[in-house]
Amino acid sequence: MRPVYAISGGVSKFAKSRPDKNYQALVKEAYDYAIKDLEISFPAFTEIVDGSVASYFSDHFSRQLMAAIMAQDYLGLCPKPSHRVEGGGATGGLCFQEAWKSIASGHMEVAAAYGFETMSHVETWKGNEFIALASDVSFDYPVGGFYSGYYAMMVTRHMKEYGTTVEDMAHVSVKNHINAFHNPYAQKRNRYTIQDVRDAPMVAWPLTRLDICVMSDGAAATILASEEGIEKLEKAGAKIPRPLVKVTGIGRGTDAMRMADRPHVDFETFIKDYATDQEKESQETMKYYQKLWDQGTRYPGVHSFRAGRTAGNMAYRHAGIHDPLDELDFVELHDAYTSSEIQTYEDLGLCRYGEGGPFAASGKAFLPGIDYGLKLPDKPVCPVNPSGGLIACGHPVGATGLMQAVFAIWQLQGSIEKHFNDDTLQVKDAQKGAIHSHAGTGTYVTVSILEKE
């Protein structure tokens, strides 16, 4: 496979509602920004780009089948090749990886990946119903299944297994909202305290309104290229920042739709099939996990996402990462709920299973130099969701994974100040980052590693 570079990106303003534009125009807002950032004319770029991949989650929100082809036409990309991907909350991450495949395989030299969702066209209750259709409609959905309920169930099990607290979860909300305060693209730019999070209206115990992401209108686009594609663009006048940002690893994982169908594997199977290479090499960690199993823990149960661990392990091996906490400079992960961020710390090997709660409150996932109003025992090590994540930026599903990619590109290019007019969220000397997209209750998960060359 050939090297693949993420050379540019754009994000529309995320908002509860964007009545000023239809979904095609939102996509163009992000797409035009990505092209403009390359300092190449729209006609010149259109001549060179070989094709695209499009992502949106639900036909229900736009009330339009094959909506992506209408966006393709609006961008002036017809008759170039394209296809639409859909995988729940992981749709944007899958889209990014499909564009990567187009370049890596030699099928294209320059590819655009764009995604969108306009969720404001329906009432919130109806939107939640549409989202709930991403569960088993013959089993979970008829008995009142909805996603906040699923995640509440999962985190209460996590709390029972590992001692995770509501205060741990609130630390995630405080961190991500305060980060987003400095992000002009974010939907919710507010400062909250632990008490604010716990005093917010309860949705499904223990999740309050400030533990849960919001529905959004928005779009995002990224441009990926091969070395030959970069050469073509630069000959046409594009200015592509150096050093380049290279996609060095991708990983995916899946799991059963119904959580009741997921296994409870024994200790030996967990170590053989799921433990990270770093965990396998630590006798102390082996003893730690053996103790958990002796106490009755089984994996993944409903408290962990084995699809996330599978995707992370695959991406790390592809990118040559052994110690993610030490080697990654930041992570943009899918925090649809504060609880899922804590679960994903563990899945991605930033800490061991069972330690996600204390990790959330430790300060290791925070940015340096920001006053969070918290007494954090540890210094920042690997900022998680420096953009503000889904909790604060918003979650227009088809755009979300691509939003993460755009922010990762800007972090690695060192251009956060350029795009945000504020350098507060710039991770200093960032060399390597991860983006993580997650669908359903962990049914599809993608992890991609981006690295400054």
Q: Would you identify the CATH architecture of the largest domain?
A: 3-Layer(aba) Sandwich
The average pLDDT is: 96
Number of helices: 20
Describe the biggest sheet? Answer: 5 strands, mixed
Low-confidence stretches: none
- What is the CATH C level class of the largest domain, in words? Alpha Beta
Beta fraction of the residues? Answer: 15-25%
CATH-defined topology of the largest domain:
Peroxisomal Thiolase, Chain A, domain 1
Which structural class do you get from the secondary structure elements?
alpha/beta
Keywords:
alpha/beta; 2 domains; 453 residues; Peroxisomal Thiolase, Chain A, domain 1; globular
What does this entry look like structurally?
The chain is α/β, with parallel strands linked by helices. The chain has two domains: 5-122 and 216-245, Peroxisomal Thiolase, Chain A, domain 1 (3-Layer(aba) Sandwich); 248-452, Thiolase/Chalcone synthase (Peroxisomal Thiolase, Chain A, domain 1, 3-Layer(aba) Sandwich). The chain is built from 20 helices and 13 strands. It has helices spanning 23-37, 42-48, 59-62, 67-74, 91-104, 124-132, 147-162, 166-180, 194-199, 227-235, 267-273, 277-280, 283-294, 306-319, 324-327, 338-347, 356-362, 389-393, 397-413, 416-420, and strands spanning 5-11, 51-55, 82-85, 110-118, 202-204, 207-208, 217-225, 245-254, 264-265, 299-300, 330-332, 432-438, 444-452. The chain has a five-stranded mixed beta sheet with strand order 1-7-4-2-3, with helices on both faces. A four-stranded mixed beta sheet has the order 8-13-12-11. Strands 5-6 form a two-stranded antiparallel sheet. Strand 5 and strand 6 (207-208) form a beta hairpin. The two termini are 17 Å apart.
